[in-house]
């Protein structure tokens, strides 16, 4: 995939299939549904043999409310003789890593965000090129010419807000700067409304305030990957310090939920829907979830997050989770058919409030139309490099999980906490990039050159004496 750079995009709604990494909600549960096989021969379909798929998902809500059942029924009508079972993981980002070690991956699953592309071959089956026609982010999860994951949706991040809550607080204009944003929070707090729900206790939403925001607020799509060139990527003066400072300000001023340590993710959607909480800072995918929790589409708005006081505003374009087929599946053809159906035909993209990854389709969300009226400059997300992922793993930093963001927010001295992480990062760089060995080699070569030069000078001196 070519290097993606920030770019100005004049959007017609037909071109609004964007993207952002943001992760969707999770909870643990299981449900069973029926599904059929990809493109089996007529002979296979008439055998009467039942084939079962196990699909791992983070969308517990759609399993529990029957939406996934609807998809399975639709799929089964096209491919008789198959059965699909959905298994939800409570905290998918961390739970799936444990599953990798035991190979308990089911048949179809979301690819772990922290897994280097070079390791995909160990756990996933290459997907047919035909799945990627007119598809965004086709090469995001590829290695040596093979593609292992197809994006399930696309999104951009911003402030999802309850319009009625804003009116109750006397906010008549969407904040365009960070100072205006803080002022809006103060107004919401004065009338007894939680200004913004962080979902600190759920952990994973905190990535919105970390690598997600950091990766686009400078307009540099390659910001995270360029961290591999530095031994001290975390400072109070750079974007990492700026974004953590914003969250700390929100917490210190009482602009967030009171119970920070409980996982209230599902509860929070109802709070925003009712107007008891005013805002979220998440991807557009959360809009339909708030509606499902009792909100109305007309009452929800969406605008770019004003992370500073400049007039320039960047917003991300990122893929959501990627769907792949387990290398250990016994029904790989059927599993690939489900992946193709799920992304392109099931209705999941619209049901989840995503922007389509199919470039021939458009978003129907009115909130996206509103978002585009603010004319942000979009920064298209770049795949994390293997060096970035390997250094992160060695430094024991689980990006896109939110856990280290929690630690930094709670740190009494952010500078010291950053320094500790910089030490870990620098050590990991040496190990992953071979800097220690390289430096030692250069040192040895330098010593050898010096010794040779000294010997040459000695000979010249001896010759001059004679």
TrEMBL record:
Pfam family, any one: SBP_bac_1
Region annotation (Disordered) ranges: 29-50, 438-466
Keywords: Cell membrane, Lipoprotein, Membrane, Palmitate, Signal
Biased composition (Low complexity): 445-454
Signal sequence segment: 1-27
PANTHER family the UniProt entry points to: ARABINOSE-BINDING PROTEIN-RELATED, POLYGALACTURONAN_RHAMNOGALACTURONAN-BINDING PROTEIN YTCQ
Name this protein carries in UniProt: Extracellular solute-binding protein
């Amino acid at each position: 995939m070519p290097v993606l750079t920030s770019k100005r995009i004049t959007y017609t709604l037909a071109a609004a299939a964007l993207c952002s990494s943001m992760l969707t909600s999770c909870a643990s549960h299981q449900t069973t549904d029926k599904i059929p096989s990809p493109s089996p021969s007529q002979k296979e379909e008439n055998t009467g043999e039942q084939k079962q798929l196990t699909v791992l998902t983070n969308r517990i809500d759609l399993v529990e409310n029957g939406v996934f059942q609807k998809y399975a029924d639709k799929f089964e009508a096209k491919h008789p003789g198959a059965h699909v079972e959905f298994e939800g993981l409570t905290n998918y980002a961390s739970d799936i890593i444990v599953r990798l070690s035991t190979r308990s991956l089911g048949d179809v699953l979301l690819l772990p965000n922290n897994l280097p592309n070079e390791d995909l071959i160990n756990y996933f089956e290459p997907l047919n090129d035909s799945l990627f026609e007119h598809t965004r982010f086709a090469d995001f999860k590829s290695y040596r010419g093979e593609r292992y994951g197809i994006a399930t949706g696309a999104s951009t991040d911003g402030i999802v807000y309850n319009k009625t809550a804003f009116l109750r607080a006397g906010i008549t204009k969407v904040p365009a700067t960070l100072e205006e944003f803080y002022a809006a929070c103060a107004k919401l707090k004065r009338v007894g409304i939680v200004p913004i729900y962080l979902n600190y206790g759920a952990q994973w939403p905190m990535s919105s305030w970390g690598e997600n925001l950091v990766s686009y607020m400078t307009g540099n799509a390659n910001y995270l990957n360029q961290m591999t060139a530095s031994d001290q990527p975390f400072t109070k003066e750079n974007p990492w310090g700026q974004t953590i400072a914003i969250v700390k300000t929100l917490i210190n001023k009482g602009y967030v939920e009171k119970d920070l340590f409980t996982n209230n993710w599902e509860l929070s959607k109802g709070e925003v829907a009712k107007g008891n909480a005013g805002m979220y800072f998440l991807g557009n995918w959360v809009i339909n979830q708030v509606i499902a929790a009792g909100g109305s589409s007309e009452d929800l708005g969406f605008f770019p997050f004003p992370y500073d006081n400049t007039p320039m505003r960047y917003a991300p374009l990122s893929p959501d989770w990627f769907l792949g087929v387990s290398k250990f599946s016994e029904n790989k053809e059927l599993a690939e058919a489900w992946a193709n159906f799920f992304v392109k035909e099931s209705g999941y993209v619209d049901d989840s409030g995503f922007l389509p990854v199919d470039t021939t389709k458009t978003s129907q969300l009115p909130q996206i139309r509103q978002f585009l009226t603010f004319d942000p400059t979009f920064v298209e997300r770049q795949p994390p490099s293997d060096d970035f992922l390997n250094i992160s793993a060695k430094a024991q930093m689980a990006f896109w999980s939110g856990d280290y963001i929690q630690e930094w927010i709670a740190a009494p001295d952010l500078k010291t906490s950053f320094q500790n992480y910089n030490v870990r990062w620098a050590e990991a760089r040496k190990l992953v990039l071979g800097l220690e060995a390289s430096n030692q080699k250069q040192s040895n070569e330098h010593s050898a050159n010096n010794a040779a030069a000294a010997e040459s000078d000695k000979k010249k001196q001896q010759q001059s004496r004679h």
